[in-house]
Each structure stands twice: as C-alpha cells, then as structure tokens.
C-alpha cells in the first residue's frame, strides 16, 4: 500500500462536489439497501405529471431516471452542487432551484404530485406536506439512526444515537398531516480499504466530523491508517430508512 502521506495528499486534492462516489471505486464499499430506491423512484416519476426532488445534490438520482414528468423541479442548498445539477439536468427541462438549508420551499401550496429526496439533510415535514397535492406522495430514502458512527466516533468519541430515529420522523410526518404508508430501516456494511478513502468521505460528508481537516485530525488518521494496514479494512455500518407518506385527497 502507498504511504500515508501519498494517500492523504491525493484525497485532499480531489474534487468532492456533487453526490457521486465513483472516486471510491476499489477503495471503499457500501452495501446497498434491499429496496432499490433509485429504481422505485424512476418508476414513480414516469407515472406523475409533476415532481419535486429536495436536496438533490448534483442531480444524480433524477438524472438516472429514463422518463421525467412534464414538470420536474429539484432543489439544492450548496452552490457548487446547484451548478452541477444544472449542467446535468438542464437539457431535460428540469428546473433547478437554489434553496438554502432551513428556508421555506419557494413553491405554492399543493403544487406537486410527488415529492422525493435521497438523504435529505433535515426533512421539513410541514413544507413537504404543504407543497404536496391532495392524494400526492412523499417518497424518500433517509439516513437512519447511528449511520457510520463507528467511523465518526473514531474521531469524535462516543455520541448519542437518538437523531434520525424513524419513529420520531413518522410522528413528525403525521403531525404535519401526512399518512405514513411505508417505513423500513436497514443497516448496511461499509468498508474502507485505505486512509485516502476516509479523508475523501469526511471532506464530502462535512457534517460527519464538523470542521474536519487533515491537520486537525492527523493523530486519529494515523491510528486509523495503522488499523487498515493491519486488518485490511475499517468496517462501519450505514443506516438507511425508506419512507413513503401520502397527503390525503380530501
């Protein structure tokens, strides 16, 4: 294996914009949930006339769909990803809207038959319910509780694992007037085969270890590098929740 410094320098220099993880091919793996979110979403998009995808990243999931509704809108809060989404989706007539995290959605009430999101930062259930048309559906894959905590706690120490509890999310959805149709959570094995993969993921998922830099966390990075070299990989587990909720037609 290459030296610690070589791997870290490479991972520090690579572009981490967008929501593609192709750079990790051969360097890290993550087991996928059994329900096939992208495939299910694509099928739903083909059956509606209007849809909104929230926190779309670089538009990767919407870009995979073979058929899009007549009105397709996506929102994203990070400006570099907004530009990536526009480049990816503009030719297909998708409207890309910059919406800062925590701000209301700039759309009228009951404007979309389908609202979707893969890994939203913080679902705003009242806003989701407001923009859904009567009889419409919210279909999403959320990050579940304690996701990747083996890796995060390596750097931050023990953390409370109460955030992103699917039961709490279901309660919030119902409080916003939605009917929860499906709610499933699964844990998926993750493996990191070199320290560069770890640096890359922490630069990309900036909320995992807030303020992460190689300089600030060099000591735990060096310990983790030694662990990977001894054991062949560092193992963690992601957590994913499939959510389907409908707005009553009445």
Automatic annotation (TrEMBL):
Give GO MF terms, alphabetically: S-adenosylmethionine-dependent methyltransferase activity
Q: Name one Pfam family in it.
A: Methyltransf_11
Q: Which residues form the Methyltransferase type domain?
A: 52-138
Q: Which InterPro entries match?
A: 23S_rRNA_MeTrnsfrase_RlmA (IPR052939), Methyltransf_11 (IPR013216), SAM-dependent_MTases_sf (IPR029063)
Q: Which residues form the signal peptide?
A: none
Mind telling me which PANTHER family this protein's record contains? METHYLTRANSFERASE, METHYLTRANSFERASE TYPE 11 DOMAIN-CONTAINING PROTEIN
Recorded protein name is Methyltransferase type 11 domain-containing protein
What organism, scientifically named, is this protein from? Answer: Dactylosporangium siamense
Species classification: Bacteria, Bacillati, Actinomycetota, Actinomycetes, Micromonosporales
